[in-house]
Write a structure and sequence with these properties.
With 279 residues, this protein is mainly alpha-helical. It is built from 10 helices and 4 strands, in the order ααααβαβββααααα. Strands 1-4 form a two-stranded antiparallel sheet. A two-stranded antiparallel sheet has the order 2-3. A hairpin with a 7-residue loop joins β2 and β3.
Length: 279
């Protein structure tokens, strides 16, 4: 196999960052291919088209897709059942191209034109309210039709997905910097307070002991009050999540009973019978 720069290999990949190849993204997979450590038939979204191009570039024999059934399936776009969404933001954190819009405790929705169908948002959802809708598009995201008209559809889609992924990474980096910038001034402020306190130690020694005791008791009562509220809130939130998960399991069982394979139908029937008995 020829030694090819990872950048040239990555240029042939669909840039969905779906991790279906077993690597954490398209760039790591390209690096593994460049080192000769990975098979060239692992990119499910790219299918046979990408495999053939990788084989030509690396001067290797072409191969069948590692998962031929999945590679032949139509492309799909994620869809969120907004009536069941609990606003946990788990799917937002999982999306590598920021194609999900929403906020904590608010309804989430998928930006269909930017979804790459990577499926990474499905597993983290605690209430199983995200589905895949098959589409006729050969390459995703759909927005490449508007932003990269001069490129072939495949490479235009990859370019658009890569741009979104780059913006996603830059956003996370900004948030990290803002977090660190918020923490560091607090540390400096605490350090300056310590210096100031040391310099005025003589003044504090003259404070009446009764005042110190009263302040300590007030502070302890405040902390105790604040400690109870989050605990109650957390218990309530946990109860809501458990309830939503139970509803999700019920919907999943009904769906499998109606349209699943034989094993799924048998398991769904047993689950529903047990669920009915408990109710």
């Amino acid at each position: 196999m020829m030694s090819i720069a990872p950048e040239r290999i990555a240029a042939l990949l669909p840039q969905t960052q779906c991790q279906q190849c077993g690597y954490p993204g398209c760039a790591p997979y390209a690096q593994a291919l460049s080192r000769g450590e990975a098979a060239l038939n692992l990119c499910t979204p790219g299918g046979q088209t990408v495999i053939n191009d990788l084989a030509d570039l690396l001067q290797l024999p072409t191969m069948r897709p590692a998962d031929p059934k999945r590679a032949k399936k139509n492309k799909s776009i994620a869809y969120i059942d907004e009536t069941q969404c609990i606003g946990c933001t788990a799917c937002i954190r999982a999306c590598p191209v920021d194609a999900i819009f929403g906020a904590t405790k608010q309804m989430h929705t998928v930006i269909a034109s930017e979804c790459t169908g990577c499926e990474l948002c499905i597993a983290p959802c605690p209430v199983d309210c995200i589905y895949l809708q098959p589409v006729n598009d050969k390459w995703l995201p759909r927005s490449h039709n508007l932003t990269n008209k001069l490129q072939e559809d495949r490479f235009a889609a990859a370019t658009q997905a890569q741009i979104r992924y780059k913006h996603h990474c830059e956003r996370l980096e900004r948030l990290l910097q803002q977090k660190n910038a918020h923490i560091n001034p607090c540390n400096k402020k605490n350090d300056s307070k310590s210096i100031s306190n040391s310099a005025s130690a003589g003044h504090h020694q003259v404070v009446a002991a009764a005042d110190l005791i009263a302040k300590a008791m007030q502070r302890a009562q405040t902390l105790q009050t604040h400690r109870k509220v989050p605990e109650n809130q957390q218990n309530f939130q946990q109860q809501q999540i458990v309830k939503a998960q139970q509803h999700a399991a019920y919907r999943r069982a009904v769906r499998n009973l109606q349209s699943g394979n034989e094993d799924e139908k048998i398991a769904a029937l047993k689950w529903l019978q047990e669920y009915k008995r408990q109710q």
